[in-house]
Amino acid sequence: MTLDAGSNPHHSPNPALQGSQPRYVQLAQTLLNEIESGHYPVGSQLPTEFELCEQFGVSRSTAREAVKRLVQLGLVVRQPRVGTTVRARTATTGYRQSMADVSDLYQYATETTLVIESRATVQIDAEQAQSLEATAGETWLNLHGRRHARTPSGEPAAPICVTELWLHPAFRSIQGIQGALQGAVHAAIEQQFGELITEVEQEIRAVALNKADAEVLGAPAGSPGLWVRRRYRNRMGQLVELATSIHPADRFSYTTVLRREWGVGGKGDAA
């Protein structure tokens, strides 16, 4: 049986869920409708993947993909050993990233599209060298672009950020980094050069969008933004890639889960 999410003439499908309507999109639309109608109020739990499979006669992968789309729309949040909790009644137009380790950055890259708009080798000056932990006069690869979230149908949405990347001179001949990218740049470095990223340092701070960035992002100049800088390091701790992104405040949110190891750091532990 095929789900008909658009059969109600008074409730048209959310634009973020329109497309060729594969099963996971139909299921996501149905769950979205039920969240918006209050069937699943904010703070309540969605059925588990197993329960969704039973209720809708779909595979585990279909149920998982449908819930992932709701996560991307900012409607629900998934937590280990807790389940899927409804966090909003209406979908957002941005991207919500949840990260626990380096591998989650690959997921971020595959769930969004980075459009490279310029590529140049740059002989860095003293100020740039300080940020890049390098020596003035070195020639690094500099990339500029915009990153877009993708709708469940695979189409790019409005840009969620402008991004600048710097790649170490050892990797400046990297191939395939142009136009629309559906994977991580650091993954391409690993694949082409045999390098291994073992650590990512992340710094986040609030900023006001300057006029140039605001124009590219279609946001008001001076409006709140989120500045995110990531330093990708290899096994020797050397900087391989520096990525700086600036997001409008309403198009990106970030969550992380901290777990306590019981017996570590509690009262009575040795100093």
From TrEMBL:
MF term (GO), any: DNA binding
Pfam family, one: UTRA
Every HTH gntR-type domain range: 21-89
Record key words, sorted: DNA-binding, Transcription, Transcription regulation
InterPro entries in alphabetical order: Bact_HTH_transcr_reg, Chorismate_lyase_/UTRA_dom_sf, Tscrpt_reg_HTH_GntR, UTRA, WH-like_DNA-bd_sf, WH_DNA-bd_sf
SUPFAM superfamilies reported in the protein's UniProt record: Chorismate lyase-like, Winged helix' DNA-binding domain
Polar residues biased stretches: 9-21
Domain of life from the UniProt record: Bacteria
Descriptive protein name: Transcriptional regulator, GntR family with UTRA sensor domain
Provenance organism: Alicycliphilus denitrificans (strain DSM 14773 / CIP 107495 / K601)
